[in-house]
Amino acid sequence: MAKIETEAKRLVNTKSTPDTKHLDLLDKIDFNPVFIMAEHRSGTTVLYQTLVKTQSFNFIKAYHVIKYNEILSNYLNNKEDQACQDLLELLVSLGVKDRVIDNVEVTPNLPEEYGFILQNCGYQFHLNPDNLHIFKELCKKIQFISDTNRPLLLSNPWCYQHFMYVKSVFPQAKFIFIHRHPIHVINSKLKAERSMLSNRNEYANLVSNRYQDTFKNSFKRWYHQLLYSSYFDLGLRRFTRSAVTSTTYFLQNIDALSQTDYVSITYEELCNAPEITIFKILEFLGLEAKDTLDYKSLIQPRPLKLLPEIVRNYDEIREQLKPYFVYHKYV
User: Which candidate, 206, 177, 239, places its Cα nearest to that of 95?
Assistant: First the structure.
C-alpha cells in the first residue's frame, strides 16, 4: 500500500501543468510566513478574512486552491482576471453563494486554507517533511504574483497539532493562536460535518479532492455519516477525543515558543472587541492596517444553539478538557 501511495504522489508531482515551465522563476523568491493556528471552527475564517481586509498581507484564496496548477501561467499571460471571472461564473452556475456550513460568502477571493492544496497534490493536509516542498512552492507562487513586501498570511487548522514542526522548519515564522470555548468548537464541528455529508456541498467539491471522493463513494459517505452521527454519541465522542488531543498538544508545547514568536487571542474577545483585537495582532507583527474598516460589521457572532448530545454530556466533556478550561478561564 505504501509503495502504491508513493508512486501516486510521484505521478502527481511529475505531471506537467501550465505552471511547470515557469517554476524556475521561484528560485529566488522568499516569503515571511504568519500562521493562524487553531482548531477548525474556532473562528479562523473570520479572523483570516478580517486580517486580509486590512490590506497588510498576501494570502491564499479560493482561486489559488481551485486553479493551483495555473497560478503562474495565468499571471504571466495576463489571464488571471479572466480566470477569476470564469470561476465566478462557475460558482454562479452551481448555485454557490456561501459555504452553507457558516453562511460565509464564496467568491474567487475568499481566503482559504493551504491544506487543500497539499491534499489535492496527494499529501496529508498538515505540513510535514513529505509535503514541505509543495508548501514552499505554493508560498513562493503567491509571493511571486503579489506584493513581495507583504508578509504571507496562512491558515490551516490541520497544522494546529503540529505547530512545533512548523516552527522548526520556519524559525522566522510568527503565529497567531485563536482559541474558542472547546465545547462550542465541538458543537460547531458536529453541525458542519453532518451538513457536509447530508447534501453535496458544491464549494467543498471544488476545493477538496478528498470531499469529492467521499461523496462519489456511497459506502464511504455512509461510513462517515455513521462516524459523525448521534448514534451512541459517536460523533460527539470522536470530536471530544480530537479536542483532548489538540488542547493537550497546545498546553504541552506553547511554553517552548518564545513570547516574541506568537500572539494569542480568543474568538470571544475577537467578537466582543474586534478592533482592539485586530490592532493587537497588527502591533505584534509590526504592521499597520492599510485600509479603514468597520470591524463591528465584519465580525458578528452567530447565535449559539447546542446539540442535544452536547447538552446531555456537557459536564463530562468539560471534565475531560479541564486543563484547557482552566488555562482560558472557560466555564
Answer: 206
Residue 271 grid cell: 467578537
Confidence of residue 12 (pLDDT cuts 50, 70, 90): very low
pLDDT tens-digit profile of 269-289? Answer: 999 999 999 999 999 999 999
Neighbours of 106 (CB within 10 A): 20
**3-state class (DSSP) for residue 224:** helix
* H helix or E strand, kind and range, residue 176: strand 174-179
Distance CA 305, CA 37 (A): 25
265 has which bridge partners?
A: 178
| Secondary-structure percent of the chain, ordered helix, strand, coil, rounded to 5 | 60, 10, 30
- Amino acid identity of residue 252, one-letter, is Q
For 186-224, give one letter per residue: b (16+ CB within 10 A) or e.
bbbbbbbbbebbeeebebbbbbbeebeebbeeeeebeeb
